[in-house]
Amino acid sequence: MSIRSDPLDRLQIPDGTTVEEHDLVANGDVVVGGQSTVEFGVRGRNVYAGERVRFGGDIEADGECRLDVWCDVGGNVLVGGDAYLGERVHVAGQLIVSGDLDIGDDVDIEDGFEANGWIVIRNPMPTIVFLFVYLSQLLRLGRDEDAEEVVDEFLTDDREHEPVLVPRGARVSDDAWQVSTPATVGADCRLHGNLRAESIDVGEGTELFGSLRAKGDITVAADAVIHGDVTTRGGDVTIAEDAHIRGDVAGENVDLHDDAEVDGAIRARGAMNITRDDGEEESADEAASAPPDPPDAIERVEPTVSPREVSGDATPAVRSATSPDELTASGDLTPAIRRVDGADGGSTADDGDGDEEPRDPDYSTSAPEPATNGHGLSSAIAEAEKR
After folding, report:
1. DSSP structure class, residue 380
2. Which of 6, 387, 360, 51 is nearest to 180 (CA)?
3. Model pTM greater than 0.70?
4. I want to staple 124 with a disulfide (CB 3.0 to 4.6 A). Which of 48, 102, 195, 318 is the partner?
5. Is the dihedral angle over the CA atoms 62, 66, 72, 76 positive or is it negative?
6. Bridge partners of residue 254, in order along the sequence
7. Distance separating alpha carbons of residues 227 and 216, to the nearest angstrom
8. pLDDT for res 334
């Protein structure tokens, strides 16, 4: 067992804690420090409250319930075990106790009370004093095994569920959770209200219908959803992967995971880093100026048609000639323009009997000047025949 000077030095919300229909529902114990205000009801295994604590709803405890002096309950008090009420406790509803009832002086229960066990009207002994007196009596009677069982039940930290711890002077409501100590919210919680604390740590899968504001560091774990802003006055903000912030983020330094999502603006007075799964960190300026990542692989497309085989004796498309005589010596040349016998539309060479061979063109004659009279190709041919 660890002994600390102040066991309520932080706001602690264990895993699986929810706020349902204006009630704080916890799987384990609920411990509220003195002079605190809880504006909704409380349901848990055991409920302990210090002096001058005010509850705005019902208290339901499966085990025992202990309310210190000057506590005020705005509803009913239902206890499955024993109940201990200090002096001047006020209950606006009804008190039902399945076990023993130990109450102090000037206790006000407006709708009456019921108890199945012993009812003792006195100032209840403080829990720690009662524990030491009980252990001393067991050891005096030689019942060491029973004393060890009591120690294991009350003093060990091996609990099935961690308790809900509300520090002294806190104010808890549907609108805001205001504490002057660090705050820790476990995993898979569902809470309503804005959270104000010295520093804030939100667990995985938690959904908070409000904003986060702290003087120090703020950490939001993976898969958490915050329906509001996340701001810190002088600390750093760390947002893990797959976390969703439905508001703005502001801090001295902001560490944002690449897979996190922020709907609003991000403001960092210092540095802003983007963290990836491989552990590398990249500043916001580097991320903006960096070129896009190349594709992981380039797919090679194979041709669907095989290339044609090229013959070794291919004929060139353009043949070179060393002289004009070589062009005329070739017998394969076909003149582009054939001679016409008469310019007045007489018969052409093709109109004969077919025995006359076509005459070779005369390349010695210089080419005529371009036609300028507007008659086109026929005028140019007639002019050449006249020459």
Report:
1. H
2. 6
3. no
4. 102
5. positive
6. 237, 272
7. 20
8. 54
* Amino acid sitting at position 211: S
Token pair recorded at residue 241 = 């992967």
pLDDT, tens only, 241-253: 999 999 999 999 9
Measuring CA to CA, which residue among 122, 127, 78, 119 is closest to residue 101? 119
DSSP string over 305-343: SPPPPPPTTPPPSS---SSHHHHHH-TT---SS--BS-T
Q: What is the spatial distance between Cα 206 and Cα 190, in angstroms, rounded to a whole number? A: 6
Q: Can you tell me the distance from the alpha carbon of 58 to that of 40, in angstroms, rounded to the nearest whole number?
A: 8
Closest alpha carbon to 259 in 290, 221, 295, 231: 221
**CA distances for 271 relative to 215, 216, 259, angstroms:** 18, 16, 19
Does the pLDDT at position 367 exceed 90?
no
CA 3 to chain centre: 38
- pLDDT number for residue 376: 60
Burial 277-308 (b: 16+ CB within 10 A, else e): eeeeeeeeeeeeeeeeeeeeeeeeeeeeeeee
- The packing angle between helices 127-140 and 144-154, to 10°, is 160
Q: For the chain, what is the total number of helices (H) and then of strands (E)?
A: 5, 39
CA distance 348 to 142: 147
The 10s digit of each residue's pLDDT in 247-281 is 999 999 999 999 999 999 999 999 999 988 765 66
List the 207-209 sheet strands across, edge first: 113-115, 95-97, 77-79, 59-61, 41-44, 23-25, 18-20, 190-192, 207-209, 225-226, 244-245, 261-262
Number of Cβ atoms within 10 Å of the Cβ of 214: 23
User: Could you give the C-alpha distances from 94 to 196, 209, 305, in angstroms and in order?
Assistant: 33, 32, 91
Q: What contacts 332, CB < 8 A, 6 or more positions away?
A: none
Structure tokens at 115: 């108890």
